[in-house]
Each structure stands twice: as structure tokens, then as C-alpha cells.
Design a protein that fits this description.
Order of helices and strands: HEEEHEEHHHEHEHEEHHH
Number of helices: 10
Distance between the termini: 44 Å
Structural class: alpha/beta
Low-confidence stretches: none
Strand content: 15-25%
Mean pLDDT: 87
Helix content: 40-55%
Shape: globular
Largest sheet: 6 strands, mixed
Bound molecules: adenosine-5'-diphosphate, magnesium ion
Strand order of the largest sheet: 5-6-7-3-8-9
Length: about 300
């Protein structure tokens, strides 16, 4: 706490004179609620190492999803699969046609070093909003005339992120966006991401950011990529309950499993045998039955 307070007191960042509000309404929300990505029976195996398998989940337009999992569990690998840069071992990942994905990697080495930040941002239009957002994150407009090579990692991150937020991506993937940021900048980033009306997938160990911005989770646990319909706080509460009241959790799990089975079997009846969807669902039902037996 003392360290955080000291960091906050340092006031290395001038408070921006601009208004906070960054208006993303120019984006529209035509794609809100529509499925953008859908994974079925997805697996990634390197040699004899299974990162994840039998994973079914989806991402819908307008969602803000926190992507969690221990180091080395396969988060970046899945992102590369989504981008088409890594092969799929089993199953499939469907993407809606013409889906435009923006990816902000952990380290920024692909910015044109000899261009000024302003030239870079101008190329994408929307400069006034970029200025406001960057000022909120502690990069003053006067800094924008310097070449990008003179920017620190954290500053480059901000410039690239802001340019991406203003671009018309359908899905924006951020890999550890707060790593190089000080506290005031983190808070500014949180506000900006909250105001953002597009779709976000955020990999982050910054629990505060994930809890504040994301209301859905994608988690790699037990070698599965799972989607959860709640925030990080609730996820942690459930994990805690699992540890302290395993009996109660078991009862809940039994009931949930039962419901899942009924739902999936119902769905199966509506599908044509022999189709991919039928086979995936069938596989999932087998899996659920096996788990039921174990209980
Ligand atoms: N091309 C590859 N061949 C073999 N193993 C790999 C390859 N790429 C990544 N891995 C391994 O897969 C694991 C998951 O990596 P990664 O997706 O970067 O995890 P995360 O992003 O969750 O920290 C790591 O142990 C990594 O060493
Ligand atoms: Mg990673």
C-alpha cells in the first residue's frame, strides 16, 4: 500500500485538462450480440504435451472477456490459432466472415520508428479523439511530434492501443496491456476500455483491470478452455467455495451436470446424425456421461 501511495503521489503525470469522456459511438453496434468466434472440440497438442483439448466456447459481438490461465497454459498459443498463425490439432475455430481482428502483442516492435506519433495516428484518422485519449493516459499532445523511436515501451503501447481502439476492428485482443504502465495510466486505460463499445479479449494478470472491465471470462484450467458468464470476482468466490465447502460445490456441480446433459441431449435430437455439429455434441455428451459416472 505504501509503495502504491508513493507512486501515486509522485504525480509524474500531469492531470489532463481535457474532459474524460471518450465517445466510441462512431463504431455503431451492428454486430452486437452476434457470434464472432466459435470453437468446437478444440485441442492444441505440442508433441506429447496437451495444452488444452475438448474445448467448446464462443465469443459474441460487444463482449468484454478476460482471458485467464497460468503462465504457459496456452493463452498466446490460442490467440495465434485464432489469427491463423498456429495450426489446430483437433476440432475447429469458426470465425464470422470478414471478421477484422486487431492484436496488441505484449512487446511492441512493429511501430514505424522513423514516423512521429502524430503521423502514425493521422494515418488512421480520428486524431482529435486519439489526442484526448492519449492526454488522459499522460502523453501530452506536444509529445506527439517526436519520432516513435523516442518513445518508451509503455508509451508505444499507449499509442498503438489508442490507434487500435479508434480503428474499426470487430475483435480486439490485448495481451498484458498494463505491463508497462504506471498506476494513473492504468486507471486511464481502464476507463477507456470501459467506454469502448467494441469486442475485447484481454489477457492480463492485472486482476483489478479484468474485474473492472470484463464481465465474461475465458479460462484455461484442467487442460480445457472454458467460458464463464461472470466476472473475475465471482470466479474467485466460486474457487474459494470449492476449497472451503467442497461438499456444497459437489452438489451444485451434480445439478449443473444434470442440467447440461438434459440440454445437450435435447439439442442432439434437432441435429442431423453424421454432421460435424452432431459428432461434436455427441462427443461432449459422452464426456459429460463419463463425468457423471465418476461422481
Ligand atoms: N511451437 C511450439 N512448439 C512447442 N511448444 C510450444 C510452441 N509454442 C509454445 N509452446 C509451449 O506451449 C506452452 C504454452 O505457451 P503460451 O501459449 O505462450 O502460454 P501462455 O501465453 O498461456 O503463457 C509453453 O510451455 C510453450 O513453451
Ligand atoms: Mg502469453
Amino acid at each position: 500500500m505504501r509503495r502504491l501511495e508513493a507512486e501515486l503521489k509522485k504525480e509524474t503525470i500531469e492531470k489532463p485538462a481535457e474532459e474524460w469522456s471518450v465517445d466510441f459511438s462512431f463504431r455503431g453496434d451492428a454486430k452486437k450480440g452476434k457470434r464472432m468466434v466459435e470453437a468446437k472440440g478444440l485441442a492444441k497438442i505440442f508433441g506429447d504435451r496437451t495444452l488444452f483439448e475438448k474445448s467448446h466456447f464462443y465469443v459474441k459481438g460487444g463482449e468484454k472477456i478476460g482471458f485467464l490461465g497460468p503462465n504457459g497454459s496456452g493463452k498466446s498459443t490460442f490467440i495465434r490459432m485464432l489469427l491463423g498463425a498456429e495450426s489446430i490439432t483437433k476440432g475447429s475455430v469458426w470465425k464470422s466472415p470478414s471478421l477484422k481482428i486487431g492484436y496488441l502483442p505484449q512487446e511492441m516492435n512493429d511501430l514505424p520508428a522513423d514516423k512521429t506519433a502524430l503521423e502514425y495516428l493521422n494515418a488512421g484518422g480520428q486524431t482529435a479523439m486519439a489526442r484526448t485519449t492519449l492526454a488522459n493516459m499522460g502523453i501530452h499532445a506536444s509529445q506527439l511530434i517526436h519520432p516513435l523511436s523516442a518513445f518508451s515501451q509503455g508509451e508505444k503501447m499507449k499509442v498503438k492501443l489508442v490507434s487500435m481502439l479508434l480503428d474499426e476492428y470487430d475483435l480486439l485482443i490485448l495481451d498484458e496491456p498494463t505491463n508497462h504502465l504506471d498506476l494513473p495510466s492504468r486507471e486511464a486505460l481502464e476507463e477507456t476500455l470501459l467506454a469502448y463499445t467494441g469486442t475485447l479479449l484481454i489477457v492480463s494478470h492485472d486482476r483489478y483491470l479484468v474485474d473492472k472491465v470484463c464481465d465474461k471470462l475465458l479460462v484455461i484450467e484442467d487442460k480445457r478452455l472454458k467460458r464463464f458468464e461472470f466476472s473475475l470476482k465471482e470466479y474467485e468466490q466460486r474457487m474459494h467455495m470449492k476449497e472451503t465447502q467442497p461438499g456444497l460445490q459437489e452438489d451444485n456441480e451434480k445439478a449443473v451436470l444434470e442440467l447440461k446433459l438434459i440440454e445437450r441431449i435435447g439439442l442432439l435430437g434437432a441435429l442431423k446424425p453424421g454432421t460435424d455439429e452432431y459428432n461434436w455434441l455427441n462427443e461432449e455428451i459422452d464426456e459429460l456421461l463419463k463425468r457423471k459416472k465418476k461422481q
